[in-house]
Amino acid sequence: MRGKRAPQSLSYPIRLPDGVRADALRLLDVSREVINATVVALWDRLDQFGERETRYAYKQVTAMMDAPAFYGDRLWRCQAEQAGRILRGQAERKKRFALILSILQQGMILPKTEKKPALKDRQAIKAALASLREETSDEGSVVELQSLIEQSCNFYLKNGSFPSYYEEMQPVPVQKSGILPYAGDDGAEHGQAYRFRVDLEGRCCYFAFRFPDSQGVWAKAWTEPQVRLPLPDPVVEHLQAGQSLAPTLREEAFSRRHALRCPRSHHRGSRHSTARSAAGAARFGLGLGGKDAGDGDHRGSLRQPTLSPVVPGYRGL
């Protein structure tokens, strides 16, 4: 029987209007360069991100290095937060790699024949995974372990041997699409990189962000005007029941759209079915890095921003 698992926050994208899309693109482009340079610079210190003395990843990063390109202290903290999250995630993945290293064996690879190339032996991988499953009750960990075994086998098929250490098979994980969490700033009311306000009675939110213009000049007066973004009923309902967190600005990769991730919430209520339904919509129909049902082939053109709701996610019993 599985034990209880901690609730997981889930954010829904609200696409920004055309009037600020170019500004968001420039901000995300410069931030992506800083984040990627930071990850590259700290990659050989990956093990240090396996230990966490603070909740915020940016504190760990900023204690280890200065900004590769500086555009303001609070913006650097936000960029460092994303770089730190990437490195922390990779450090956890490296720990799990240590669990599978001893079970990697040639028996997981079907040898090459005259008619077939060398292939992964799914039955052998399944058996190895079953032995690991007995050692952990965390289904998320089991999925991660399977992913690591698959990645290791792919490395074998390409190089003729299994990796002896994690970094041997894992390239430096740089961002291709921009993601900028505002968790490193001073909050929605006093932020130096963004301002954000939720009006539950008006069923909308207001957002402003600091960005460079087309000449690379950063405006000093950026807090006004604020963009008004309407909130759908499901988002309002769950924000009323939860505590909002700092939003994240991100670029949706397929159509170069930009979306403000509405504040994530820690929900303490019991309306699991509604949240799960909405969470499923977020994962499979309303973005989160994937195509919407109506995306189709727009040949690189930018689409009009639309609103997608944000609700808390859940991990079941």
Summary tags:
disordered N terminus; 4-stranded antiparallel beta sheet; single chain; 2 domains; 317 residues
Topology readout:
Blueprint: E1 13-15, H1 18-42, H2 57-62, H3 73-101, E2 109-110, E3 119-120, H4 122-133, H5 139-159, H6 166-169, E4 179-181, E5 194-199, E6 204-209, E7 227-230, H7 233-241, E8 242-244, E9 248-252, E10 257-261, E11 265-267, H8 272-284
Antiparallel strand pairs: 1-10, 2-3, 4-9, 5-6, 6-7, 8-11, 9-10
Helix pairs in contact: 1-3, 3-5, 4-5
Task: Report what the structure shows.
The protein has 317 residues and is of the alpha+beta class. It folds into two domains: 13-87 and 175-284, no CATH class; 105-161, no CATH class. The chain is 38% helix and 13% strand. It has a four-stranded antiparallel sheet with strand order 1-10-9-4. Strands 5-6-7 form a three-stranded antiparallel sheet, with no helix packed on it. Strands 2-3 form a two-stranded antiparallel ribbon. Strand 5 (194-199) and strand 6 form a beta hairpin. Helix 1 (18-42) crosses helix 3, helix 3 (73-101) packs across helix 5 and helix 4 (122-133) runs antiparallel to helix 5. The radius of gyration is 22 Å and the shape is elongated. The N and C termini lie close together (9 Å).
